[in-house]
Amino acid sequence: MLLAGTLAAATAAQACRYTVRDVGFADLGSEQYTFFCFIDGQVPAGQADRLGQAASVLLSDANVRYELVDLAKGDPPQAKRLAKRTPGVPVGLLQSPDGKLDRTIQFPAATPDNPEWAFLSSVVVSPAREELIKKLIPAYAVILFVEGSDAAQTKRAREAVDGAIKAIPPLLPEMPKPVDHPPEVVVVSAKRVADESVLLWSLGLDDRAVPEPQAIVLMGRGRRVGQPLRGGLITRTALQEALAVVGQDCECGLDRVWMQGESFPLSWGREERTAAYAALGFDPDNPQVKAEMSRIITRGPNSRPSGVTQTASSNFDQLALGYSEELIEFEPEPQPPAPVPPTKPEPKPVVEPEIEEEPPKPQAVAQTISRTLILMAVATLVGGGLILLRSRGNR
Fold first, then answer.
1. Tens-digit pLDDT profile for residues 41-99
2. SS3 breakdown of the chain: % helix, strand, coil, rounded to 5?
3. Taking the C-alpha atoms of 296, 302, 305 and 307 in order, what is their torsion angle to the nearest 10 degrees?
4. Of 110, 141, 165, 202, which has the fewest Cβ atoms less than 10 A away?
5. What own/partner pairs with CB < 8 Å and gap ≥ 24 does 280-287 have?
6. How far is it, in rounded angstroms, from Cα 87 to Cα 43?
C-alpha cells in the first residue's frame, strides 16, 4: 500500500508538470510559414542582396522561413498562386505551415529609406502583434477582438468578451498550475483591419472590414485556441469554454487539437525567450522539454483525422467545479507461481525373497545317520572305559 501511494503521488506530480498553456509556448519545429520572395531578371542584384540581408535579421528568430525565387531561372509552381506581379518589382507569397493557404505580399509602392526592410517586416511585425506578444507572455490567455462596422453587434460581442474574462479569475487558484495574471483583450478597430491583414489572415479571420465583429482566444507563443468566432457566435459561454481549456493539465484526456492551434507569423527573439522563461519557470525551447511535449501530444487523444474526443464544454464544467485530486489505485501485477520443489519418491520397501527349504536328499540323510551312530558308539566306549577304571580303583 505504501508503494502504491508513492507511485500515485509521483504519477500525479508528473501529470501536472505541463498545462495546455505551457505547451502553447513551445515551438515544436513543424509550424513554420514560408515566405517566397520572387524576383526576375529586371530586379537589380543589389536589391536582391538587400532583401537577403533584411530576411537574415528580421526572420532569424521568426516562425517564417525565407526563400528567394528567381523567375529568370524557371517558373516554380508557387508562382502560379501570385495574385499580381509587376515586372522588375519583388513580390512575396506567404504560405501557411500546412501549405494550403497563401497570401500575396506586395512590395511597398512608396519609396521609404529602406523598402526591403519594410517589405520583410510586414510579414512578422504589426502594432497588434507587438501588443499581443507583450500580453501573452505574462497573461493566462488573450482574446483578440476585431470590431465590425455594425456598432450594435460589436457592442454585444464586446460585452460577451468582457464577461468571459471576468469569469476566469475566480477559477485560477483551483487550476493545476495557477497563473497570477488573468486573461486580457487586444482590440483591433475597424479602421486598423487593413494594417493587420497578415495577422487576421493567419488566424482564419476576415482580413478586410466586415459588419460582423470577430474574436479568437490566443495563448503562449501566439497559438490559436479553438476556432474563430463571428457575429452572433461570439458568446460568453463559447469564449469561457476556450479559455477553460488553456488551464487544463496536458496529461488529461483533452483532445490534443486544442494544443495544436496555428500560431500567427511573429518574431520571438532573446527578449521574449527570457520573459517566457521567467513567467513559466522552465525553458520551453529546451530540446528535452520540446521532446517531452511532443510525446504528450502524440500519445493523447487527437481528433485529427478522426475520432470521438473530449469537448471544450466538458473541460469547462470540470474546471468550474474546481480542481481535485483522486487516488490512483494500482492493481498488483500477477506474480508467477512459486516453483514447487520436486518431491523425491518414497523408497519402496525391499522385500527379501523367501527361501524355500529344499527337502533333504537321501544321501545327506544317510550321512547324518551314520555320523550320529558313530558319535553314540564313541560315547558308549568312553563311558564304558570310565566305569572299568573306577571298578579297578575300588579293589
1. 999 999 999 999 999 999 999 999 999 999 988 888 888 888 778 899 999 999 999 88
2. 45, 15, 40
3. 150
4. 110
5. 280/22, 280/25, 282/22, 284/22, 284/25, 284/26, 284/27, 284/221, 285/26, 285/27
6. 8
Q: What are 322's three cell numbers?
A: 474546481
Which residue has 460581442 as its cell numbers?
Answer: 157
pLDDT interval class at 318 (50, 70, 90): very low
Element (H, E) at 184: strand 184-188
- Cell digits of residue 106: 506586395
Q: Can you tell me the distance from the alpha carbon of 85 to that of 282, in angstroms, rounded to the nearest whole number?
A: 46
Q: Binning pLDDT at 50, 70 and 90, where does residue 261 land?
A: confident
What count of other Cβ atoms lies within 10 Å of the Cβ of residue 47?
16
Domain 33-124 = CATH 3.40.30.10: yes
Sheet with 33-39: strands ordered across: 64-70, 33-39, 91-95, 102-106
Is the CB of residue 185 less than 8 Å from the CB of residue 145? yes
Residue spans of the domains in the chain: they are 18-26+127-320, 33-124
pLDDT single digits (tens) 166-215: 999 998 888 888 888 999 999 999 999 999 999 999 999 999 999 999 99
Is the distance from CB of 63 to CB of 29 less than 8 angstroms? no
How far apart are alpha carbons 25 and 219 in whole angstroms? 8
Q: Residue 250 pLDDT more than 80?
A: no
SS3 state of residue 216: strand
User: Are 118 and 105 contacting, i.e. CB atoms less than 8 angstroms apart?
Assistant: no
User: Higher model confidence: residue 5 or residue 243?
Assistant: 243
- For residue 111, give the 3-state DSSP assignment: coil
Q: What is the tens place of the pLDDT at every residue in 221-240?
A: 999 998 999 999 999 999 99
**Which of the four pLDDT bands, split at 50, 70 and 90, describes residue 297?**
confident
How far is it, in rounded angstroms, from Cα 242 to Cα 244? 5
Q: Is the CB of residue 51 less than 8 Å from the CB of residue 115?
A: no
Query: What H or E segment, with its residue span, contains residue 151?
Result: helix 151-167
Query: Going by C-beta distance under 8 Å and a sequence separation of 6 or more, which residues neighbour residue 123?
Result: 33, 35, 58, 59, 62, 64, 92, 94, 105, 198, 265
pTM: 0.72
C-alpha cell at position 378: 564313541
Please list the residues that pair with 19 across neighbouring strands: 249
